[in-house]
């Protein structure tokens, strides 16, 4: 019985994310549909928190309610809503169902319901199917009943989170749902590497110590600085951003510490610097390794004494500022080269926090790609925008030297190319590997004289399409890797240099797993 299964999930001690995922899995099986998605509402944006039946990248999408009339209709009703197969309203999941046969198809049958906690809308639960007539009037009645289990599961997760916070002595709550700052600073990803950083970040946020964010260009250090500020005791005060690399040496002192009238030509009035503006809050110094030595000495005084001196003034002013710095440089090496002060380095690096590059974040690349796909879909006015399976494989194999910023630009460029190649805005637009312009070799190209590729898979039959050939080669490579490792999927994933979850997903798409 479904009710007993749902009740067992609620009573079992398990992480909140696992509980919600089990619920959507159970509902998909019961309603025999293509996909079930649980979305949380935040500032008029719906964010997937548990999915079953959609492609992995859907987790990274953020659905602006005003841009998706079906989701808006669900939120506007307290009762279940069904959309017939001939509904004129576009479906947000068109082209995103994981088990679509052949080319991407529009979703044909949909229903959903809004979810409420303490009489306030928390989000929505959606069910989608390719087969018209999947959902009936009886399905609507069942959905109304089973949505209560989902609302209870969400509430249990919130209570567990509150208990953990109390045990850790955290008296401050997270920012309220609906704040723009949370959306703008959202860090997207579920990899162990990112979860580890976020765990550290949550601990150090309340310590009020200087934090030095380390990482390559494009990893998103500014987002982590914003998150640290939001989680800190200073979240109701300003977060001030300074790009040190863009500060001319002649203006850097005035920009950071302010000046008085007449301090230099053009100083027609007193002006507060960034430290004074950030008083009570947080100052984020990006690319701190670019600061001139003369400014480094003045910055050190602020960290030591909490005092600043405006340019042209002989008076000191007290400031209360939490400092976060970031750099993609090796500051230890700069200290050795005497281009960065050793005493300042030690003051800044009280808590160094390395941000992992995208190539070390596993399946996060797909989730982030989904986020950028949805942004470009909305920006370009497209009905739907997705990656082909081959394009997804390409982004997973690429090393991303420019990290998240490079991924964003690649997706945006590919989306524009689609339009320039004549794709209609009403189509389900699909990005193929050649539109990504990535220097990556897909398995089909690695051939040898013996008629096999480097992984031992035989060449595909003649007179087949490119897609069929790629699928054939991928299937053979997986079979060969499993044969070499006694059907161990984890070892096969290492052999093929794939994330284990990506290998399972690929095998499911190729029909190799039930």
Write a short abstract of this structure.
The chain has 18 helices and 15 strands. The protein is 41% helix and 15% strand.
What does this protein structure show overall?
This protein is an alpha/beta fold and 514 residues long. Helices cover 41% and strands 15% of the residues. The protein has 18 helices and 15 strands. α1 (2-11) runs parallel beside α4 (137-167). The longest helix has 31 residues, at 137-167. It is globular.
**Distance N terminus to C terminus?**
23 Å
Q: Walk across the major sheet and give the strand order.
A: 3-2-1-6-5-4
Described by the principal axes of the CA atoms, the overall outline is globular
In what range is the share of β-strand residues? Answer: 5-15%
| Sheet having the most strands | 6 strands, antiparallel
Contiguous uncertain segments of 5+ residues? 171-182, 444-457
Count of DSSP strands? 15
Helix content: 40-55%
Outline the fold blueprint.
Blueprint: H1 2-11, H2 16-31, E1 35-42, E2 45-52, E3 63-64, H3 69-75, E4 81-83, E5 109-117, E6 120-129, H4 137-167, H5 180-184, H6 192-205, E7 211-214, H7 221-231, E8 239-243, H8 249-257, H9 274-277, E9 282-286, H10 293-305, E10 307-308, E11 317-318, E12 322-327, H11 331-336, H12 342-348, E13 351-354, H13 364-380, E14 384-387, H14 389-397, H15 403-420, E15 428-431, H16 466-484, H17 489-495, H18 500-509
Parallel strand pairs: 7-12, 7-13, 8-9, 9-12, 14-15
Antiparallel strand pairs: 1-2, 1-6, 2-3, 4-5, 5-6, 10-11
Helix pairs in contact: 1-2, 1-4, 2-4, 6-7, 10-12, 13-15, 16-17, 17-18
């Amino acid at each position: 019985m479904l009710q007993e299964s749902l009740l067992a999930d609620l009573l079992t001690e398990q992480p909140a994310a696992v509980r919600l995922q089990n619920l959507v899995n159970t509902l998909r099986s019961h309603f025999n549909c293509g996909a079930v998605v649980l979305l949380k509402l935040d500032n008029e944006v719906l964010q997937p928190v548990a999915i079953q039946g959609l492609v992995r990248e859907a987790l990274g999408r953020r659905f602006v309610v005003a841009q998706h009339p079906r989701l808006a209709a669900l939120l506007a009703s307290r009762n279940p809503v069904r959309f017939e197969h001939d509904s004129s309203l576009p479906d947000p999941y068109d082209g995103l169902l994981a088990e679509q046969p052949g080319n991407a198809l529009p979703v044909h049958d949909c229903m959903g319901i809004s979810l409420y906690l303490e009489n306030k809308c928390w989000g929505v639960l959606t069910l989608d199917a390719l087969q018209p007539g999947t959902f009936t009037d009886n399905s609507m009645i069942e959905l109304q009943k089973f949505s209560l289990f989902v609302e209870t599961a969400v509430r249990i997760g919130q209570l567990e989170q509150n208990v953990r916070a109390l045990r850790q002595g955290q008296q401050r709550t997270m920012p309220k749902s609906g704040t723009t700052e949370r959306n703008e600073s959202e860090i997207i990803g579920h990899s162990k590497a990112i979860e580890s950083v976020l765990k550290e970040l949550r601990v150090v946020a309340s310590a009020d110590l200087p934090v030095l964010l380390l990482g390559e260009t494009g990893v998103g250090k500014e987002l982590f600085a914003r998150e640290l500020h939001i989680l800190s005791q200073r979240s109701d005060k300003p977060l001030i951003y300074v790009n040190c690399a863009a500060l001319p040496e002649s203006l850097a002192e005035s920009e950071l510490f302010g000046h008085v009238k007449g301090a230099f030509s053009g100083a027609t009035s007193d002006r507060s610097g960034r430290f004074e503006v950030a008083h009570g809050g947080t100052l984020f110094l990006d690319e701190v390794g670019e600061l001139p030595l003369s400014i480094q000495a003045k910055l050190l005084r602020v960290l030591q004494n909490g005092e600043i001196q405006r340019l042209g003034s002989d008076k000191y002013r007290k400031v209360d500022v939490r400092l976060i710095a970031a750099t993609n440089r090796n500051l230890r090496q700069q200290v050795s080269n005497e281009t960065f002060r050793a005493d300042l380095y030690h003051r800044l690096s009280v808590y160094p926090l390395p941000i992992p590059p995208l190539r070390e974040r596993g399946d996060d690349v797909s989730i982030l790609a989904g986020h950028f796909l949805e942004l470009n879909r909305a920006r370009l006015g497209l009905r739907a925008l997705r990656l082909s399976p081959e394009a997804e494989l390409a982004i997973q194999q690429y090393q991303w030297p420019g990290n998240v910023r490079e991924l964003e630009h690649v997706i945006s460029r590919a989306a524009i190319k689609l339009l320039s190649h004549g794709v209609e805005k009403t189509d389900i637009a699909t990005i193929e590997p050649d539109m990504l312009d990535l220097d990556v070799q897909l398995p089909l190209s690695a051939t040898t004289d013996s008629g096999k590729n480097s992984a031992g898979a035989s060449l595909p039959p003649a007179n087949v399409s490119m897609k069929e050939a790629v699928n054939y080669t991928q299937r053979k490579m997986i079979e060969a890797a499993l044969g070499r490792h006694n059907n161990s999927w984890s070892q096969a994933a290492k052999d093929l240099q794939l994330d284990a979850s990506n290998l399972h997903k690929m095998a499911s798409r190729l029909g190799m797993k039930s």
